[in-house]
Amino acid sequence: MTERQKDRPWLMRTYAGHSTAEASNELYRRNLAKGQTGLSVAFDLPTQTGYDPDHILARGEVGRVGVPVSHLGDMRRLFQDIPLEQMNTSMTINATAMWLLALYQVAAEEQGADITQLQGTTQNDIVKEYLSRGTHVFPPGPSLRLTTDMIAYTVNHIPKWNPINICSYHLQEAGATPVQEISYAMSTAIAVLDSVRDSGQVPPERFGEVVARISFFVNAGVRFIEEMCKMRAFGRIWDKVTRERYGIENEKQRRFRYGVQVNSLGLTEAQPENNVQRIVLEMLAVTLSKDARARAVQLPAWNEALGLPRPWDQQWSLRIQQVLALESDLLEYEDIFAGSHVIEAKVESLVAECLAEIDRIQEMGGAMAAVESGYLKGELVSSHAERRARIEAGEDKIVGVNCFQQTEENPLTSDLDGAIMTVDAAVEALTVERIGRWKAERQESSDRQGDGDPFVFPTVMQALDRLKEAATGDENLMEATLECARAGVTTGEWSNALREVFGEFRAPTGVSSAPVAVTAEEGTPMALVRAKVSRTAEELGSGRLRLLVGKPGLDGHSNGAEQIAVRARDAGFEVVYQGIRLTPEEISSAALAEDVHCVGLSILSGSHSALVPDVLERLRAAGAGDIPVVLGGIIPQADAVALKKAGVAAVFTPKDFGITEIIGRIVDEIRKANKLYPLDGTEGAPGADTTATTDAIASTEVPA
After folding, report:
1. What is the pTM for the complete model shown?
2. Which end of the chain is more exposed for a tag (fewer CB within 10 A), N or C?
3. DSSP states of 469-508 as a string?
4. 169 is catalytic
5. Which of 71, 170, 346, 532 is catalytic?
6. Around 627, how many Cα atoms within 13 Å sit in the side-chain half-sphere?
7. 15 catalytic, yes or no?
8. Which of 44, 74, 149, 555 is catalytic?
């Protein structure tokens, strides 16, 4: 043991939430009892995108990838018997972040908490939603206003709270290089800080308090050295920006504060036991180096590429952190990489490249302008396409996927359906019934009163009218939102009121601007697929084959769908891709209007059992049941079998990776549906097994 005092461990979290507020509360209390030192709340997609569970777009999504929180009653149940004044709570919420923070504050007030002592983080980074995660609601301008108002409010009223978590995590999941990850996150931070400064809500002499409350949420991939250097570069650039652009002299206020979840994109369905060592290596990149050590760490579970992890799987990830922090001597030493010329050279290179890219974005008008122009999205789609091409070519090795594929039987997955947690389908019906009862029974007063008293409420309509009135002006929206929370307003009602004022936004897809990533030289797989596409189109007399790529429901993880769209385009297809958040009715209508030869659906949120049969039924009802429908996503084997029986032509999961091969398989399904003979061997022949296990329509990322 050295003489220096041992460092405190980082906050240990597990990203969790599912089914109902009661079930999630039980899970949180169980995890805290196991030694978890902070909470990280996963909300379901309706909550994240501002819909109540009885909305048409919420069908199949309620309680799937997180917990539904529709009103104050749900928030009370979520944290029952958990003293919020003593807790450090991270909430992964963005478009509706202000609303969830208001519910959290009011629930804490009802517990008797001093809100100035509340500690935690609301993610609240809307830029990466436009680029990668897809839970945006409002246009960039109003979204930035919501973020700005939250920051100003928390600095003045909840000073220990982190009102925004600038996220580079999801950028890496969308294919960002380290330079893009740093540059885009820093550009977002600049846009946010400029907005808060220019709003005048915080006096210049207190602006250091704003900077001190900005935190980051980053991704740690498997390239250990590069990831560690990335974090050192992040810290240096943040120090430079806050000192030179904003004049922050206090070194403590300039400190780069970040939490991390290690990479989910690299977790594989093939030989999933290998994910354990991947997770450990990725964690070391953000913990070994004291000068770039994360303040909070949450680890995915080994089986997230298969489906929803069970409590035991989450416990395993928590124990990995505890062994490193408590059994090793990691926390007893100063930075063990200080003075390394290898590390220093890499860090300097990253800093120089990132500063150049940040300047390029500023010349465009900043992060928001670069979102609206499609520049950022286009760059990410291109980077992801290049990454996928390297994997398929074998240049980037992934053990168990494109090398060392032979394996012994895995006892962890011998019962595939038991290797993940499933959400009871009855949960959605229960939640829908509950919100109906909440709306019918919530207590309404006859006149506006309260003004901050958490136990005296205005009517729901009064609170919503007040919110819209505030939104049409320029006052801070947090107080009106708190009134809504106390009045019993629901998530959908709050969001719809702001939709009336702000409108909605459909982000650029980045597909049309993506360059060719896989060339078609003679003899290559792409050349063969292009020939199949051309030959089939000629035989059908259709000019070009047309593929509709659809994202039904609220799943905004569009990276895989975009890669399919790009590769199909390069193979000679005419691609119809309208982005995320479509109803089965909209998808089937588009398929008919565009006279497509195949419909490809991408779902990673678990809503496939409800939404895919709906698309099939609508096509049949319209007399287009002969259009083959293929599906990609995180689909358990039992569900894949059921969907095939329902009429899905092929099911693709993250086990394989050959997108070019999958485009060829789609052509085979088109030929089979049109009673054309197979072009190569028995592939696509009648009766052949078409339940592929390939990451075709969906990427290997996990919803977070």
Report:
1. 0.87
2. N
3. HHHHTTS-SHHHHHHHHHHT--HHHHHHHHHHHH------
4. yes
5. 170
6. 30
7. yes
8. 555
